[in-house]
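Example 3.2
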Amino acid sequence: MLYLDTSVLLAWTLTQSAEPHRAATTKAFVARLESGTLSGATSFYALHEVYLFAVENAPDFPTGAAFGKAALRQILSLPLRILPFVSRIERGVHARKFRALRDASDVPHALVAYVYQCDAIVTYDSHFRAVAHVIPCKRPDDYLSH
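Structure, written as tokens:
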């Protein structure tokens, strides 16, 4: 099972026109999830970040909320496992494994992927390479036939 980070979810939903290459690659990756060739998961944390991105980048809250809701519908239509936040106890046990992450907002993703035994974090964020010794970090195109 592969953990989809927010950057991949955004490339598939809200940033397609801004990042056409990522959008095309992500679309092919998502097709593999939909066909059952790949198994995927994401977290409530990633869903929250997608919604927040929509709200923060829209001209007003109602527009952002509508875009965010549409993006969440699109994501939830995928055959993904939705993983919960990691408990306080689990965070305490495993957080030190992810100290190398420079961006604190990446830690919850790494924790969820690790605790729920995902095979890799699929992301466009290079920050996760810092913890590749704990959980592999891949890009969507790593799962596509060339």
